[in-house]
Amino acid sequence: MLLKYRGCMLIVTAIILALFLVSPSSAVQIESGDMVSIPSGTTIKGPLFVSGNNIIINADVVGDVFAAGQSVVVNGNVDGDVIAAANSVRINGNIQGDIRVAANTIELTGQLDGSMTGAANSIGLTEGAKIRSDVILFGNTVEIFAPIEGQVLGSAKQMHINAPVNGDVRIWGVENLIIGSSTVMGGKLTYRSANQAQIAPQAKIGEVTRLTPRVSPEQRVAEEGFSWFAILLWFTTGVLLWGFVYLLFPALLPQMGKLAENEPWPTLGWGFLALLLMPLAVLILMITVIGIPIAFMLLFVYVIVIAIAKIITGDFLARCMSRYLKWEGRVPFIVPFLIAFPALIILARIPVLGFIINLVVASFALGTLVLFFYRWRTKPPMANPEPEPVID
């Protein structure tokens, strides 16, 4: 019950913060339902928030549009940004701001004055569309048939470009790259692929650079062995951070370790859930915008905890080792830490086993932090001591 109450308070807080982020002169429009259709012939003063199963926006919007649902279609003109998350997103109207979309399929047929960022299984920029700035696209299949005045950046399994591009084209990773005959690039083409790009003879491209695919860390370890310099660098940095934490908060790591020792399985369970759900929560908060401040806070905590996960786990293992070997009071605590911490670093670099260890270590660290914060927030207040009787 307490968790549900705090979840509601978190949502309310996010909404309140969002209201402060919205200009007082603008009117917030909120539409929701299974089928949401906003008729044409009207002009809505945004920002406009729409959620539902099927969403069709035919009206013009003065301000930003935020949409989440199964299907989102924007036919009207928008003089702000369009931010959407859905199974399918189709934008037919003219957008004066930027487009930020995450979906299964994305299709753009209108004119975009700003930039576009899209992540989907299938992305299509049709011949009738036009983009006046940059595009960053991530997908399985990406088709760019619309002229682009800026750069093209992204990654895809298959990418097909058959349109003028004034800026550079940089594809960070692609399996099959097809450059059609209508392509005219004002800048350079740089792509990373195991396969040679299929470039039509009629295409006009300046400098073309093909990069070889990067070797994964697991493959590098298997082929070259351990990078002892990297291990030494991470070990030195970790020990310094560990000492810095003890210097500023001497009771923090011992208390977290004691909590994890008393509840090891809940620690791992909550940590694994946090490891999976926190990125999703950050993405949802970012897309809905009303929780952007909280999203940044969650992302910051998530990255920091993942970065120092081996330090937290190493401290816990050192404490268990010291107790098991009866070193408490006889051997400085830094000794077992200097054994446990580098062991974690080395084991985490072993292919396959390293993935499992990193998963457990990250889950343990996140779970320890979640339970520690929860116990700290739910700690009952100390009762006021009864006054001692006054003896005359």
Descriptive account of the structure:
By secondary structure, the chain is α/β, with parallel strands linked by helices. It folds into two domains: 24-214, no CATH class; 218-377, no CATH class. Helix content is 40%, strand content 29%. It is built from nine helices and 18 strands. It has helices spanning 2-21, 217-224, 228-248, 252-262, 264-288, 292-307, 309-324, 334-347, 353-377, and strands spanning 29-38, 43-45, 48-57, 60-62, 65-74, 82-91, 99-108, 111-112, 116-125, 130-131, 135-144, 152-161, 164-165, 169-179, 184-185, 189-192, 198-199, 208-211. Strands 1, 3, 5, 6, 7, 9, 11, 12, 14, 16, 17 and 18 form a twelve-stranded parallel β-sheet that branches. The chain has a two-stranded parallel ribbon with strand order 2-4. The two termini are 50 Å apart.
Give a nutshell description of this structure.
With 392 residues, this protein is of the alpha/beta class.
Would you spell out the secondary-structure blueprint of this structure?
Elements: H1 2-21, E1 29-38, E2 43-45, E3 48-57, E4 60-62, E5 65-74, E6 82-91, E7 99-108, E8 111-112, E9 116-125, E10 130-131, E11 135-144, E12 152-161, E13 164-165, E14 169-179, E15 184-185, E16 189-192, E17 198-199, E18 208-211, H2 217-224, H3 228-248, H4 252-262, H5 264-288, H6 292-307, H7 309-324, H8 334-347, H9 353-377
Parallel strand pairs: 1-3, 2-4, 3-5, 5-6, 6-7, 7-9, 8-10, 9-11, 11-12, 12-14, 13-15, 14-16, 14-17, 16-18
Helix pairs in contact: 3-7, 3-8, 4-5, 4-7, 4-9, 5-6, 5-9, 7-8, 7-9
